Structures
1.
Amino acid sequence: MSMKSYYRLWALLTALLSFEYWALNYHTQLSVIHFLQAHFRSMSSTNLSTAAGRPISYLLGWAGFGLILLTNLYILRRKWAPLKKIGTLPGWLNFHIFCGLLGPTLIVFHSALKVRGVVGISFWSMMIVALSGIIGRYIYVQLLREEKLTSNEAKNWSEKLERLRISSGAAQVTTQDVDLAKELALNFVGFPEGGVAAQISLPRILFESLWGDLRLAFSAPPPVPGLPEVSRHILAAFAVSRRRAVLLEPFRKMLGYWHSFHLPFALFMYIAAIIHIISALTFGI
């Protein structure tokens, strides 16, 4: 399952949970759970309150914590030989991230947005881990291909653009026009100035790369004047390939720093969560 599909599933489930939470608190008659309660005797005595300590809150909490535990399957897949034969590593990573998104989402509803004391420590640790996981996945994607492959890919896109220029029959479009459009496309996707990444800080590289990809999600670089609109998409693919080739080493460094940050917070999150669970079961807090 692709990451885009997982994101859509997460967004859909979050929307459904949000509606159900709103319905239970403000318009009970619109709630799906209320409807089920009215038609199934086994649910007739179920407390529909979303407050902490009630059945719905407990269910969301356990489900959220269970999904967070499932994120560790990705680590097992990498380390344990029998699991290495099942699925692909990118596929497991996508599932890992999906669980890391949906789990905290359920915990947010479980907490009813009341995060104090041990609950607050566990909650914010979880949110930091979830956010850093998204960033970590972005860094990982930048490293999927070797520098030579990304450089060749950029070269292929450049050649495709040149063929488009020749085949279009637009004699007024010069190679200088194409070169200028390439420069604009590189700036559009966050390519480092002068093509030298060593002189730029890692946080700035990450921010500009993220900003460039966010812009690409909603638009594309300006087309080559005189060439068809498809030149915009060719320029975008060329620019992203060039950026990845040049920024490969900085992103490798980022991944190392990311592991140093993400893993301790993940461990701390589990410790705080276990303390919270024991306290809730023992003292009802």
2.
Amino acid sequence: MTMEKRTPDEPSEDPLQKLAGQVDNYRRQAENLQKLFTGRSLLECPGCGLHEDELADMTVLVATRDRPGVDTGMRFAAMDDQETTWWCPSCGTPFGADPVS
């Protein structure tokens, strides 16, 4: 019985790194879709850090810095019809939304 000597395979891309790249790509696509639907970026209060986040199924939630990805049930309120100024339901800070870039 002869044993064939194997040559080392070409270095292959780490499957986790490839998956992370795909997830990042989907995240960027979702951000672009969110901007397309709402005309603005996801909101973040400059006062307390309460922020909108988006799940993989495009559900928008509002989370804190201490518990990212966990919905607080609070929602930001627009202070004008153009939705350029928002009010934070946690600390009451008014702030401007970033326009679509």
